[in-house]
Design a protein that fits this description.
The chain has 259 residues and is α+β, with helices and mostly antiparallel strands. Helices cover 34% and strands 25% of the residues. It has a 5-stranded antiparallel sheet. A hairpin with a 2-residue loop joins strand 4 and strand 5. The radius of gyration is 18 Å and the shape is globular.
Length: 259
């Protein structure tokens, strides 16, 4: 039985929360469930408007979509969000230049279908932590081309420059992934406010800490219900303790949670 928990936090340095999340464990249109993290950018209120507008447009598009193929459903939704952000930015000068990242996923039985634009990420954590998405950022391109190593990339002055965003161009390039899921897998969607403050190994360590208790005890049932909330809270706390330089968004999905 799939269970999830989501949280956003303003962090310690920002005056506005431009991250936006959406979680539905029940069907949305022809998708059996839906999880979205968006991290907006733009001056004044434009960033938080962009992330919220993009997510609401995607959800509306998915609800009304007659497609059966999840890749087509997610693709149409992201392209509709891109069109809407571009349209609103042209209509309102105060929103000019706004954009947002997005990472979106749906669980289809033992498989995870996901898509991303920008540098918000999706991980699968079990015995190890694996980043599934690829950042669309200037620094990531430098790493891929061999210009810098991964450690240097973490502290590079241009690390926040992204190469793709919803609203950036009239057409949007989307990455799609399909991953098989296994018992014990935990899925994490997050904004860069988490990953810029915590290394992957630390994220994995926090998520693997604290078992949920005995399976047949009332206490164990209670702890399992609250385990995802506790893990998400510890991620946010650790990111803030390391500086909290940006807004933080976290969605955790326990794909094979027991009832």
């Amino acid at each position: 039985m799939l269970k999830s928990f989501s949280v956003t936090d303003i962090g310690k340095k920002r005056k506005l929360n431009q991250d936006f999340v959406y979680v539905s464990e029940t069907p949305v249109g022809n998708l059996p469930n839906l999880f979205i993290v968006a991290d907006g950018m733009g001056g004044h209120n434009a960033g938080d408007f962009a992330s919220k507008c993009a997510v609401e447009t995607m959800v509306r598009e998915i609800r009304g979509c007659f497609e059966k193929n999840p890749v087509r459903i997610l693709g149409k939704a992201i392209r509709a969000a891109n069109d809407q952000i571009r349209r609103r930015a042209k209509e309102d000068a105060s929103l000019y230049g706004m954009g947002t990242t997005v990472v979106v996923a749906t669980v289809l039985g033992h498989y995870l279908q996901l898509a991303n634009v920008g540098d918000s990420r999706l991980y699968i954590i079990n015995d190890e932590i694996r980043q599934i998405t690829r950042d669309h950022s200037l620094v990531e391109e430098m790493v891929r081309m061999g210009g810098i190593d991964r450690e240097t990339a973490r502290n590079h002055p241009d690390k926040n420059i992204i190469t793709r965003a919803i609203g950036g161009l009239d057409t949007v390039e989307i990455d799609f992934f399909n991953e098989e899921l296994h018992p014990g897998d935990l899925v994490l969607l997050c904004s860069d406010g988490l990953t810029n403050m915590l290394e992957d190994a630390e994220i994995g360590r926090i998520l693997k800490e604290h078992s949920c208790g005995e399976e047949n005890s009332l206490e164990g049932n209670f702890l399992r219900e609250n385990a995802l909330q506790g893990k998400a809270g510890r991620l946010v706390e650790a990111a803030n303790n390391n500086g909290g330089k940006d807004n933080i968004a976290v969605i955790l999905i326990d794909v094979f949670a027991r009832e």
